[in-house]
Design brief:
- 80% of the residues lie in helices and 0% in strands.
- The protein is an all-alpha fold and 263 residues long.
- The protein has one domain (2-262).
- The longest helix has 29 residues, at 112-140.
- The chain starts with a helix and ends with a helix.
């Protein structure tokens, strides 16, 4: 879980520098919501890693894509905002596109129950986190709330590493793998800064998640252009696989268009 610690640390430092402030709370009340948010974010990360490492990736992928539909539902339950018809259309279209991107030749799932439970738990953790960030980022100000939340996420990551048997038993990576790990963590930190910061600033967790779901289109483009050189054979499933990818991309584009029109 070293990559989680590096990602959250990079996100916390990056957001603190971006807002030009070190978020020192004036009272204990200012720590509760960031603590809850940071804990939820780390829980989502840890559960995602567990779902992918212990479960079947072919099942975890589509389940993790369902976050786009759960965020507006959670927002409605917590009474942050009632989802509009256009929001639900965009969420469903994004969900269908995300799931279809995962379709293709699969091996038989051996650990279905663990995969489903871990993936859905990760989705709910991230969904509640997004809604908490939307509510308290708007209420308390993103400048104060977001860096504090990511500092708590970093603390949770460090504690999680300390308590994890596998993390304690694993040797530290050598310089070359460590550089690659740091590079991946930096990319993930930039992604987290953009997504979390946007939700806190503009208060549209559902719309941000639909836009974030368009990463599936970019993955298709990258694989199509660089797949051979990177040794990725996603399109070797034949015409059916290509058609599925194109239909998925269409659904994701539809979700993005509906979100932009709604805005």
């Amino acid at each position: 879980m070293l990559v989680t610690l590096l990602t959250n640390l990079g996100t916390a430092v990056g957001l603190s520098l971006f807002y030009g402030t070190f978020p020192v709370p004036r009272s204990i009340d200012g720590l509760v919501a960031p603590l809850v948010a940071g804990s939820l974010f780390y829980a989502g990360q840890a559960l995602t890693f567990e779902a992918v490492s212990r479960g079947d990736v072919s099942i975890a992928g589509p389940l993790l894509s369902t976050k786009v539909i759960f965020v507006p539902i959670v927002a409605a339950i917590i009474a942050v905002e009632a989802p509009t018809v256009s929001t639900l259309i965009a969420a469903v279209a994004g969900l269908m596109g995300g799931v279809m991107l995962q379709l293709g030749p699969k091996s038989s799932p051996k650990r279905l129950r663990a995969t489903v439970l871990l993936s859905l738990a990760a989705v709910f953790s991230f969904s509640i986190f997004d809604v908490v960030v939307q509510r308290f980022g708007q209420q308390n100000g993103a400048r104060e709330f977001v860096p504090r939340a990511m500092i708590f996420a970093t603390i949770c990551s460090a504690v999680g590493m300390k308590l994890s048997r596998s993390a304690r038993a694993a040797p530290l990576p050598s310089s070359r793998p460590l550089k690659a790990l740091a590079f991946v963590a930096a990319l993930m930190a930039i992604q987290a800064m953009l997504v979390v910061g946007t939700i806190a600033e503009y208060g549209d967790a559902a719309g941000v998640n639909v836009a974030y779901g368009t990463r599936g289109i970019w993955s298709i483009a990258v694989i199509a252009v660089f797949g051979k050189s990177l040794g990725i054979s996603e399109f070797e499933g034949g015409r059916r696989q290509i058609i599925l990818r194109l239909v998925a991309a269409t659904f994701i584009l539809l979700a993005l268009v509906v979100t932009l029109v709604r805005a």
